[in-house]
Design a protein that fits this description.
mainly alpha, about 575 residues, MetI-like fold, globular, two-stranded antiparallel sheet, 2 strands
Length: about 575
């Protein structure tokens, strides 16, 4: 019997070791090695280490101006995103009304649209000839902040809303019965319970905003540049790898600081709360919900619908202002002078195939990572290792897409001695997209797993269940609740990824975001309108994917409820 237990323990250790080793190997090979190699090229001159670029870069006034602008843009956009995202989370996940599932899916479209397209849409809205041109905001800090919030309100709404949807608010009602006003009850009971979820969402949004590229490049230009666009300018325009490497290290330091702060906030505010089954989580809107409904409606109409509507209308007009469907016809049969090889329909099909592979990679690795991070080791050393593992997993969020793309091209020539040049194949594209989607998958799955009451696992173990049985009967049924949402995010993020993909595509095998960007920037008559039409198509495909994922999530939620029988407390973290 003892031998059997030792044998079972050995298999458990081997399984958890594999769960850690597989994602780490993927990150080390396809992320750490390329990024470090590219940065190293900026600190090596004639085969010797040369650190003279550090004082040179940080001694320049522009460097500190760019860093300050990065912090200002990211901070302001995070505040706006949280302020607008919390009402959206309440309306979409606490209230029940016709069309809610449709809105939940459509709210994801802004997040995954290529940044170049969104930048052009806001430029058309705020620039000369646009509806808001009189405000003269096209090249301003406000335009950059609002455009960044366009993407990230969805992040806050989904991160907070998916948790808030199952939050037991009996404590809130009890506080009101004891005489507290609805506002005071929310501030003293509900808000503390949502605190870790808000910290998680805010940290994630800050990372996205501080590494934004297309939005700042188009709406901010050189005057409002951030670290990301400055890295691009140094690398592509001036081939200054040394300066770009120094700025990349500064970007890593900023990302590491955000991760440390968010981890401390998580540990300080983490608390167990009671979750409810799906059938009890929402109610019909009431009169007291009108202010939040107004804020949500204004967000949808002014922040999201206005630029998207501008995009759609511009795709239906010629350069002379006449109405036409020719821009969409050009997607099927593009003129020879367009920078597109083959039809845009083939680019759509290729994008979907690549995004599906990337989503599968991200789901497998993200599931393993979430399982490892959800455990609560007793050893202080193991807990420190777990935090370090968590930080490594989140690093792709804060790395320049330019750095990652160039790094992959630099290192993937017969990697590890394998007789295959990955740079000549399309294999690197889903790998790069999976790196982008991986942190999102982990952050969707991890709160559910960490929310499982340890007493449930202990009770199952006491009744004779082995580690595999505990995982199969407790963890996986609850994990299934968020699998559809994670899959949708992974697919959508991969489908709209532009930065790294633009460096990895091969001639004749362009993804749709790359095609859109090339059409928009091309001088051929009609190319700009066709690019806008392609962006509309990309939004429609993304919306359909997210609606399907939302349906899958709901279906699996019902199955998860039947399998688990009850809901455990939950902790949300970043």
């Amino acid at each position: 019997m003892a031998a059997a237990q030792r044998g079972g323990g050995a298999w458990v250790v081997a399984a958890w070791t594999l769960a850690v080793a597989l994602p780490l190997a993927f990150l080390l090979l396809f992320f750490v090695w390329p990024v470090v190699s590219l940065i190293a090229t900026g600190f090596v001159t004639d085969g010797r280490v040369d650190l003279s670029g550090v004082p040179e870069v940080f001694g320049a006034a522009r460097t500190w101006r760019v860093i300050g602008q990065t912090l200002a843009q990211a901070s302001l956009a995070t505040i706006v995103s949280v302020a607008l995202g919390v009402p959206a989370a309440y309306v979409l996940y606490r209230l029940d009304f016709p069309g809610r599932a449709l809105l939940q899916g459509l709210m994801t479209v802004p997040f995954v649209l290529p940044t170049v397209v969104v930048g052009v849409a806001f430029s058309a809205l705020l620039g000369p000839g646009g509806p808001l041109a009189a405000l003269e905001l096209e090249r301003s800090l406000l335009a950059v902040v609002v455009a960044l919030a366009f993407f990230n309100v969805t992040v806050v709404a989904r991160t907070v809303g998916s948790f808030w949807a199952r939050l037991d608010e009996s404590g809130n009602r009890a506080a009101q019965v004891l005489g507290a006003s609805p506002v005071r009850a929310w501030l003293t009971v509900t808000l503390p319970a949502l605190g870790p979820a808000l910290a998680s969402a805010a940290a994630l949004v800050f990372l996205f905003c501080s590494t934004s590229f297309g939005i700042v490049l188009i709406l901010g230009g050189r005057e409002f540049a951030n670290v990301e666009t400055e890295i691009y300018r140094m690398t592509v325009q001036f081939l200054d790898l040394r300066g770009a490497a120094v700025l990349s290290l500064a970007q890593f330091a900023l990302v590491g600081l955000v991760l440390v702060v968010s981890s401390r906030l998580r540990d300080a505010g983490e608390r167990a709360v009671q979750l409810l089954p799906d059938g009890q989580r929402s109610r019909r809107p009431a009169l007291r919900d009108v202010p939040l409904l107004i804020v949500f409606a204004a967000t949808i109409l002014l922040l999201h619908a206005a630029p998207i509507l501008t995009l759609v209308l511009r795709s239906l007009r010629t350069g002379a202002g006449d109405w036409t469907l020719g821009n969409y016809a050009a997607l099927v049969r593009p003129p020879p002078e367009f920078p597109v090889q083959g039809s845009v329909l083939s680019a759509i099909w290729l994008s979907c195939r690549i995004a599906f592979v990337a989503a599968l990679i991200a789901m497998v690795l993200g599931g393993l990572i979430a399982l490892v991070l959800s455990r609560r080791p007793a050893s202080p050393a193991a807990r420190r290792g777990q935090r370090l593992f968590d930080g490594v997993v989140m690093l792709p969020l804060g790395v320049s897409a330019v750095t990652l793309g160039f790094g992959l091209l630099l290192t993937m020539h017969r990697p590890l001695g394998i007789g295959l040049d990955l740079r000549t194949s399309a294999a690197l594209i889903p790998i790069a997209q999976a790196l982008v989607a991986l942190p999102l998958v982990v952050r969707v799955l991890l709160p559910v797993l960490r929310g499982i009451d340890p007493a449930l696992r202990f009770a199952a173990t006491t009744l004779g269940a082995g580690p595999g049985a505990v995982l199969r009967t407790i963890d996986l049924p609850l994990l299934g609740r968020s699998a559809g949402l994670a899959l949708g995010f992974a697919f959508a993020a991969s489908l709209g990824e532009f930065g790294a993909t633009s460096f990895l595509v091969r001639p004749g095998e362009q993804t749709l975001p790359v095609v859109v960007a090339e059409l928009i920037g091309h001088q051929t008559p009609g190319a700009y309108g066709a690019g806008l039409a392609g962006a509309v198509v990309l939004g429609m495909v993304t919306a359909a994917a997210m609606l399907g994922a939302e349906r899958l999530r709901l279906d699996r939620s019902a199955g998860g409820s039947r399998a688990s029988g009850s809901w455990a407390g939950s902790r949300v973290e970043f």
